[in-house]
Amino acid sequence: MKKSISTISHSVDHRARIFWALISISGLLLGLYVYAVLATVSHTVSRESLLGESQALSARVSELEYKDIALKNTLSLDVALAKGFSEVVKPLYVSRTRGTLTLNVVSR
Predict the structure, then answer these.
(1) In DSSP terms, which residues pair with 92 in a beta bridge?
(2) Which residues are bridge partners to 8 per DSSP?
(3) Which residues partner with 1 through β-bridges?
């Protein structure tokens, strides 16, 4: 009879340890799940914020490109001559020969 009581005692003790181990593992998994959900929400909010900034910067770049094109359209030979530029008589060209850069003077 003592042996059966001892076995039952060990069995109950063993079951209690398994129960608390499962509770601990469940708590750990629940904590990891909550962390994963919070990280996902945080990253989604950050992504939306960055998307808004990206759109604002894209609009600014478009505006600057428009201004650049508008300024390029105002340039002409008369404006360049008035600013002190002159036409080149003998242009110098750079060409690639056998992997090295050389300066070639082309005569016309």
Answers:
(1) 105
(2) none
(3) none
Q: What is the CA radius of gyration of the chain?
A: 39
Split at pLDDT 50, 70, 90, the class of 67 is: very high
Mean pLDDT calculated for residue range 84-102: 75
pLDDT of amino acid 13: 83
Q: 105 in helix, strand or coil?
A: strand
Output the CA torsion 77→79→84→86 (10° steps): 0
Q: How far is CA 2 from CA 10, 15, 28, 43, 101, in A?
A: 12, 20, 39, 61, 99
State which amino acid sits at residue 54: S
When pLDDT is averaged across residues 71-90 and rounded to a whole number, the result is 87
